[in-house]
């Protein structure tokens, strides 16, 4: 498989993947003297599950933060839905249909699961407080629509039984699932997952993998995720970008990447010339 293909492709499990949704072109990101990303290019196609993997400090989080608009690279271009994206704030990126979860859970711990998931709908709440006061009907209709969508997400991720529970009381694996629910509540076109399995036990990882696959299948959501655990990612992803020391050292199907000598060396800790 070529990573320069413009059109989509059929996955090994027979799913149809569309054209290019996002393209990173020659991205370089520096923090003072540290080059976190060096001249990396790759694309994300409509409907695929795309992983970015690499050892510690490879630059995965930095790349996710470039995609989500948190960092603006010094060099390179970000293309989204066929247009070059100007530098924009993360909330503007979110308004373009990109939602994310965080490596360290970022939920409102004192609030219920339902209220946390509702915050994912903020971009859809068009009426402000003044409008709500004078235009009650419209605000109510909006509230009902948002609520219906959130309930659908809650059912889908099987968290009905904890919808009233304060997040602080939940075990780690469930918190991660609530974070996924909140991101999904935004009905994103592109969903970014920052180490969705980090800190999970085997059973929780299996659950999370299943939910990620189901989200992709049921909602048609394109998913980009970063992980440093190779195993889980290989089962889940259609294509994988491998980073090491800020550079791209591999890009292809899980099989292609698994057999790439540079990738094997990076994971075995072979020293660099
Ligand atoms: N805000 C920052 N300021 C300075 N240096 C940074 C910053 N963020 C990341 N770096 C550096 O950039 C490099 C890449 O870090 P990054 O967190 O993107 O890697 P990673 O692959 O996500 O690592 P991990 O798997 O450990 O989370 C590292 O050398 C890191 O120290």
Automatic annotation (TrEMBL):
<dbReference type="InterPro" id="IPR032823">
    <property type="entry name" value="BCA_ABC_TP_C"/>
</dbReference>
<keyword id="KW-0378">Hydrolase</keyword>
<protein>
    <submittedName>
        <fullName>Sulfate/thiosulfate import ATP-binding protein CysA</fullName>
        <ecNumber>3.6.3.25</ecNumber>
    </submittedName>
</protein>
<dbReference type="GO" id="GO:0005886">
    <property type="term" value="C:plasma membrane"/>
</dbReference>
<dbReference type="InterPro" id="IPR003439">
    <property type="entry name" value="ABC_transporter-like_ATP-bd"/>
</dbReference>
<dbReference type="InterPro" id="IPR051120">
    <property type="entry name" value="ABC_AA/LPS_Transport"/>
</dbReference>
<dbReference type="InterPro" id="IPR003593">
    <property type="entry name" value="AAA+_ATPase"/>
</dbReference>
<keyword id="KW-0813">Transport</keyword>
<dbReference type="InterPro" id="IPR027417">
    <property type="entry name" value="P-loop_NTPase"/>
</dbReference>
<keyword id="KW-0067">ATP-binding</keyword>
<dbReference type="Pfam" id="PF00005">
    <property type="entry name" value="ABC_tran"/>
</dbReference>
<dbReference type="GO" id="GO:0016887">
    <property type="term" value="F:ATP hydrolysis activity"/>
</dbReference>
<keyword id="KW-0547">Nucleotide-binding</keyword>
<dbReference type="GO" id="GO:0005524">
    <property type="term" value="F:ATP binding"/>
</dbReference>
<dbReference type="Pfam" id="PF12399">
    <property type="entry name" value="BCA_ABC_TP_C"/>
</dbReference>
<feature type="domain" description="ABC transporter">
    <location>
        <begin position="22"/>
        <end position="270"/>
    </location>
</feature>
